[in-house]
Design goal:
The chain is 23% helix and 18% strand. By secondary structure, the chain is an alpha/beta fold. Strand 11 (249-254), helix 6 and strand 12 form a beta-alpha-beta unit. Keywords: DNA damage, DNA repair, Nucleus, Repeat.
């Protein structure tokens, strides 16, 4: 019997929005420089074996480790310290901040003349989140969107330290390591940021869920965007399965509540999936795979187990 987790839906709350001041009073000094060699950090990522149950995270078995040289800090590209590692200006959005943290966020963007976005889009460079002292945060829709776009997911404490030192500092020590739903150290945020590859480029995905059945995302369009951002072919009509590229695994993704039709239609759908080698899974397979930036086993989310 498969057990499912609950993803925090804090991004849907009204208080999530941060009011941006109309006036930008100061800009950061332009004489701040950084030595790229001094900012290169060698770290180790642990590759995890997926547990049989999402709830039994303590049973994860460590398989091996891979040493990665991380040279993608905001500080490595430009001496103009309100630009990021891609050469673009910093554009920040927030997720699940409390009122005190929102106040610090407003102070930060005013002090350093930083741009903001209310949503996660192509201009966004960082998602600033609430977290505990272990760099673990609630898993929200914005965070999943940020991971799909290979963005920095960073603790609000980075803002505080920048304000304290009166300069933009290296954000990597404040990068989120895990979340309260899937585990404290799964590393999906960093794993996504350090690669330009597409997570789902070997899959064709057909979505059969409604906007009220895909939390923590707010609309089916947001889920469709995730699918395409991760490199999968988005199949809009299930009848297309007969003509699809056989080099891609076809996946039918149902909503949180599973199949909504009667038993006869359910059986017909599953028979068709079996005939054309289509995997039929709950939407949690898609969301957790993106959040961990690691393809999850179909068996844990097979619709027959729901």
């Amino acid at each position: 019997m498969t057990r499912y987790f609950t993803i925090t839906e804090l991004d849907n709350q009204v208080e999530e929005n941060v009011e941006i001041p109309q006036e930008q009073n100061e800009s950061i000094p332009s004489n701040v420089t950084a030595n790229p060699r001094e900012n290169i950090i060698s770290t180790t990522i642990t590759i995890e074996k997926n547990p049989e149950s999402i709830d039994e995270l303590s049973t994860i078995e460590k398989l091996d480790t891979t040493t990665i040289i991380d040279h993608s800090s905001t500080l490595l590209i430009s001496s103009i310290t309100n630009t990021c590692s891609t050469g673009r200006r910093l554009v920040l959005t927030t997720s699940s901040l409390d009122e005190n943290q929102k106040s610090q966020f407003r102070l930060f963007i005013t002090r350093f003349d930083i741009s903001t976005s209310s949503t996660v889009d192509s201009s966004t460079t960082h998602v600033i989140v609430n977290e505990n002292s272990s760099l673990v945060c609630p898993l929200t829709g914005k965070i999943i969107q940020g991971i799909a776009r290979h963005l920095f997911i960073v603790s609000y404490r980075w803002l505080n330290e920048c304000l304290s030192q009166e300069t933009i500092i290296d954000e990597r020590p404040y990068e989120i390591r895990g979340d309260t739903s899937l585990g404290s150290d799964h590393g999906g945020m960093r794993r996504s940021r350090l690669t330009s590859s597409y997570l789902l480029d070997k899959y064709s995905i057909c979505l059969r869920c409604l906007s009220n059945d895909c939390a923590p995302l707010q609309t089916i369009e947001q889920v469709q965007e995730l699918v395409e951002l991760c490199g999968a072919r988005l199949v809009r009509n299930f009848s297309e399965i007969k003509t699809l590229d056989k080099d891609r695994q076809m996946v039918l993704v149902l909503g949180i509540n599973g199949f909504s039709g009667g038993e006869k239609k359910r059986k017909a759908l599953l028979d068709t999936c079996q005939q054309f080698n289509v995997r039929c899974v709950n939407i949690h397979w898609l969301l957790i795979s993106i959040a961990k930036f690691d393809i999850q086993p179909f068996e844990n989310y097979d619709i027959n187990q729901v």
